[in-house]
Structure formats: C-alpha cells, structure tokens
Amino acid sequence: MIAVEEALKVVLGKCAPLPVVSVDAAAVSLGLTLAEDAVCTLDSPPFAKSMMDGYAIRSSDPAERTVIEEVLAGQTPRKSVGPGEATRIMTGAPLPEGADAVAVIERTDLLSDGRVRVLDRLSAGKNVLPRGAEMMRGDVVFKAGTRLRPGEIGVLAGMGKATVSVHGRPSVAVVSTGDEIVEVWEQPGPGQIRNSNGRMLLAQAARAGATPRAIGIARDNEPHLRTMIDEALAADIVVLSGGVSAGKVDLAPAVLASMGVEQLVNHVRMKPGKPLYFGVKPRASRPAALVFGLPGNPVSSYVCFELFVRPAIAKLMGRPEGSCSVDAALADEVQYPTDRPTYHPARLEASAHGGAVRLVPWLGSADLRGLAAGNALALLTPGEGAHPRGTMVKVLQLDDFN
Ligand code: AMP
Ligand code: MG
Description:
binds magnesium ion; binds adenosine monophosphate; six-stranded mixed beta sheet
C-alpha cells in the first residue's frame, strides 16, 4: 500500500498535455488552456474614449463653454474643441481633438443662452480612458498556459480572436459496476441500490473540465465487464466504480489485466478509498488510456476522483500542476481516531481571521448525503484522534469552478 502523494506521482507521471487543437474562442473553450500566447494586434481602446455621458472639455478653461457638437458612441467627432468650447459626448464615444476631460452631465447646468456651465474643476484625463490603456498592440495579454474563464473569453473576443489554440479537452468514460446496481429510474428490488456513482462521477468529470461519457452499468461477470470496458477504452480516461476491492465479484483488476491494462497502483493508504486502482492501456496511435478503478462506496468514489482523476484531467488539459489544498483552522474540537490519513467531508468558511473548517456530520463511505452537505475535504492525520480547536489542517476545496 502506498501513500496518496506517491500514488498521485505515479498517476501524473503517466499524464501529458493533450495535442493542441484550434477551437472557437467562445463558450465551448471554457476551462481549456491556451497553448500559445495571445498577442494584441490593436490598441484597446483604439481611441481615447469617454467613460461618462457629459461634455468633453478643456480642463483649464473657465466654467462656461459654448457647445459645438454632439457625439454618440459609434460616431467620430468632426470638430476639435477650442478654448471656451465643449462637445456633448456619450459613454464610449471618441474624445474630440483639443478636449482633455469629460464633465459628467449631472455636474453641469445648461444655460439659457445654450452654453453649458461645468460645476467642478476637473483635472486633465478625468473620465477619459486613454488610447491603449487596457492593452497595446504587441502586448502578450495572456501567456500560453492560461486557463480560459469567462473574463478571458471576453477579452479574447475584444481582441478579435475568433479561434484559439488550446490543449484538447479530455474525455472521461464512466462505467459503474455491480450486480446490485439498478438504473436511476428503476425501483430497487430486495438487495438492490440505485446507481448514484454513475451520474456523480460524470458530473465530477464535467466540473473538472473534461467531456463526460456515460457507458452504463457493467454486471459482475467477466464478459460483460470486458464489453463495457472495451467501449470505455476509446476515451482518454476510463473511470470504473466498484469491483476493485477484495470481494468475491471484485473482478475489475483481473479483467483489466486480461485486456492489456498495466496495473501501476493498487491500494492507497487513505480513508475512504483504500482499494484504488490505476493502470494504463497502451494504444497504437494515441497516448495510453488512463484507467482508474474507484472503490464502489459512493464517498470513496467521490474522494478518489477528486484526489487522483481531477489532477490527471488538469494535466491532460495542459494546466500547470497545482493543488486546490489550503491550510485552515479547525472551528471545533475533533475526536476522530483513524489508522489512515482520512479525508473527512467538511465545510470551509472564510472568516475575518482566515479560513476556518468545520467537519460535517458523516456516517462513512456510504454516506453521500453527509458529503453533499460540505464543500471541502479536511485531511485528518492518523492517530488517537484528538484535534483541538484551532489545529491547522489541510483542506481540499471542492467547489472551484475556475
Ligand atoms: P464494491 O466496491 O463494488 O465492492 O462496492 C462497495 C459498495 O458500494 C457496495 O455496497 C455497493 O453496493 C456500493 N456501490 C457500488 N457501486 C455503486 C454505485 N454505482 N452507486 C451506488 N453505490 C454503489
Ligand atoms: Mg461491486
């Protein structure tokens, strides 16, 4: 049995960023990683622009000005603003020649003779975004390796990038195993339970940025397992739930071996999730498929996915290796004797004095509802289990969408 860190090293050692593809720089690129620098080809804004509705003025002039023109966003000023003059201007319109500031409409009075009085003394540049203030031609706006979030997608649109080069999005095929498992829409008979893991793991794959593929439920017999795994092996990553422990029908490791999957990890020192399996299936013209066998108890499956599959997905997507783990103080005293490092469902809360973490009530690896009440996993070290309030523990954040 190896430690979590060691197992993760083995997994990541088999992961390489997927080949570079060109995609629409639109919502479909969300979460993908740029494979090249994004370089600005046009200053933004392309002209000095008014940030307010009001009057474009020369800041050093006396208060009252003659209005010479009106410019809406999308129009180009035809007149330059001379001494004692002003141009009525709207947000987003180019600042006319001669003007150096914009007086907001609310702080002006229109006089009976048609002139305008500006109520405040403004400094040059007030309410004006200078040309190129956001970005200049030639700037590297995003470096290769940047993950695309909605903000980046908006900036790329502003830069006129219709497509971008990114690392591909990995596919994750999920196979649930077990004779006792029935579909979500079925009424479980005696001894049967519904397939929680299938949908949960597909959702975890989607959250991690991968494309989820539902393969279905494999029965605990060799031919059926083979058929389902064979279908799943078309994906970059295969995730099996169940069938990897020491039970009589835990057939997955043997079936995988017979299909040419090389086992690299089997059993990890952790709770929940000890029987974790990881292997690779070499393929002729593509990188090897990564195969994870997660123990079937729902919380074990969930935790193993977050600890091992999610980082693998991140690496395939070309993201720099990192950790979503933070240190936080226990909000309450905890009594939890355990023989293995334990990832306990918890709730991480920001407080004025830094993060605090509170364990949520949890009945163990079958208690998915308990897990769902949290937003994090707190790592409890093995031992007698007395953790006083304020003890600093490692916390894995789960609800990070970016
Ligand atoms: P296994 O790892 O196959 O021995 O399964 C361990 C436990 O997890 C058993 O109690 C299973 O009934 C349960 N289990 C396995 N697969 C699923 C699933 N897809 N959804 C919910 N529970 C499951
Ligand atoms: Mg089973």
